[in-house]
Amino acid sequence: MIDFQTHPDRYRHWVLTPRGAVAHLTLAVDEQGGLVEGYELKMNSYDLGVDIELYDAVQRLRFEHPEVKTVVIDSAAERIFCAGANIRMLASSAHAHKVNFCKFTNETRNAIEDASEYSRQRYISAINGTAAGGGYELALATDYIILIDDGSSTVSLPEVPLLAVLPGTGGLTRLSDKRKVRRDLGDIFCTLEEGVGGQKAVDWRLVDEVVPGSKFTDQVALRALEFATASDRPDAAVGILLTPLERRIDKDSLHYSHLRIELNREQALATLTLKATEATAPQDLQQILALGDRFWPLALARQLDDALLHLRTNEASLGTLVFKTEGDLQRVYDYDRILAEFSDDWLVREICLYWKRTLKRIDVTSRSSFALVEQGSCFSGFLAELLFSVDRSYMLEGQREDDPRAAANIRLSSFNFGPLPMPNGLSRLQTRFLGEPDSLVNAQALIGADFDASAAQQAGLITEALDDIDWDDEIRMLIEARASFSPDALTGMEANLRFAGPETMESKIFGRLSAWQNWIFQRPNAVGEQGALKLYGSGKRPEYNPERV
User: What is the topology classification, in CATH, of domain 8-229?
Assistant: First the structure.
């Protein structure tokens, strides 16, 4: 089992050093610290284990270190920044692991950009040597890139000439959309094995600055302080500790304090039930800060995030996710209200941003997803976003005779109208009602009102309302039908339907990963016995099928 929980005390590949307004996140990869046996992580190359630590560090910098305004990513290796994803690891990995590895690294790079834009915690890459492939892609996710000018250090994306694959972590998209690199120069750059360094790297907009070795450390420090002065992060705030999650994993279930997951392997199904807290919502910031990571919205976000990663990575055959909720609808709405009221506070801001990122993880996960609104559900505000994240949602009309709980209702809040956007930059309801803007206006006018099954269907908030007579059979047939389809076809269909509306850099990255890289990772030119990934480092030239398809 691959576990996404870790702590700086257990890092094998990164050193996190916060010092006032500036923190250094230093890559020092343990060559023998690969996630599995069979390869060495030479030249600061990385596998999923390295990136799990990076993701953890980015999270902790946001929550545990509000005083940190600039993060410098650098390397402890001499003349090497990062050689990118480990090729031996990629060559020996199953197809699903390759794709999920790239997806997770993309999500982590997006989290860095999210921290820069919304948390005002800016990132600088201090490239003190070679930055190749995924190493340069890591730098591309930061706000500013400084390259040492020593006559040999370069940045490169050599995947096409060396490996017959694409840069797997958004490199091509960030070149064109973020760095604004010219198409012809980008074409040259992406077909050069050796990369580009010196002033040419600045002229081509591949980096922001080149600095001689004698001035490199001082210049990095100067830029870090310049970025820090422009940040609105609080100087004197005290962070909260992200303590280890309490989690029990059984053969057919996972249990957290606010989340229960039931695994039905025969139906290829995982049912996730998110539970509302019984504690009343805090009334002020002091109470929220005192609760720390036990504050229910934050605790639940962490648990859901961990569960989604676990299911994606360790339960690949469970192709359908069903989301349910349990608890008091008013209680959830009260937490919505308190989050909205204190949204300008640094900690509340981080909690809301965490929910945004976790919901996006559902958006880009290659699983069919449904939501069931039943008696005792509490789909309100940020939990109601689950209804608009999934591929379909169903709601029970009325009450079952043997269930004394109140009939199912849905309640909207301000969180459903902007604070938690999808990768396309729109809210989920904006995306849902792209062709009927009046429906969005009507829904927003009813913030705080309860929608029963009939009203929810009329308002377009659910796919269908079902009565108790049909409920069990309809849901069973839905699950069975889904399991009968080709997983490949479903992945493609869902990815095409989920992101209506404008294209963004983020949606482009995931779209190209889902389509192009997924396809290339299965082609013999890359992964065949005579393919580039298999022969890399052997001295043998790969054999390519010359046909363009």
Answer: 2-enoyl-CoA Hydratase; Chain A, domain 1 (3.90.226)
